[in-house]
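User: Fold this; tokens only.

Assistant: Input:
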Amino acid sequence: MRTTDHFIVGDIESRVAPVLPELASKTSGRRRDEKLAYERNKLHKRLLRLTGQALGDFNMIKDGDTVMVCLSGGKDSYALLDLLLTLRERAPIAFKIVAVNLDQKQPGFPEHVLPDYLTKLRVRFHIENRDTYSIVTRVIPEGRTMCSLCSRLRRGILYRVADELGATKVALGHHRDDILETFFLNMFFGGQLKSMPPKLVSDDGHHIVIRPLAYVPEEDLAAYAQWRAFPIIPCNLCGSQENLKRREIKQLMRDWEKRFPGRVENIFAALGRLTPSHLMDRRRFDFEGLQATNEPMADGDIAFDVSPEFEAVGPTRTEAGPANLVLRGRGGTRELRVGPAIEPHGRTPHSEAPDTRRPR
């Protein structure tokens, strides 16, 4: 009996063994697919939530609006159109969408890509043909940045098209990182505290421009574009230029996010928490007429003091070398290490911890 059993077991093993790796591979593949589907569902929900939140926070779209979505062929504008189409189906208000692309006659621009894509999507669209490429390359010396002139020409054309199409809102695909990069560009190289607002009135006063992706990180849009397999059209005019200041700022922000997780998010949140009385713009706050009222003030100096828990009373040094802070608080004093020893973690009791709150 034992001999028979031995032969039976051996026969089964000889038949099953070759298929075990295949079964394991299928199981592993199924788990990967399930995890991928889960992550994509989370991403889609997050994008819809952040876009919907921006739309609501800034009252971007009203009942009866016709929204002109400016479609460049890049990942951001594709995602903007896709998300707005989904939100339109779920919104308690009714609004129309028309996609518009400005063909600037750049060499090698694939003219068929966007019309084919939009036709399959069954979206109302308009392609505007204007040779701004020749103007920009003729006016701007070789090696200089073309973005400024190109954007001015593009805006003027798009505003005219918006009038012709009866659009009440002009939607652009700028995201959170674009807003932050513009903020730093203006501060570092222009000496101004300003950025891209989520909603504005055009210079001529005729058009309302909205940025529904204002709360959305660029990395989420990149992942979404890869998942949705949008037919991306690269920009060969300004996107291929080297040494752009915006690239420097983008790299700076990436370095910050790696070394100090949460710093970029905190800076973005700060854009919605301005206190003019604690800055230096005399046009925004009447410093000259400021007087004591003998009444408590919410924006007084106490509200902006550093917490006593983290009041530094003096630097010290340990045997390891990096400077430390002796902190005086309600519970006595304690020593906080700062420097290379903890810098890779980017975490101290008063370091840039992620702030998930959005500006209101």
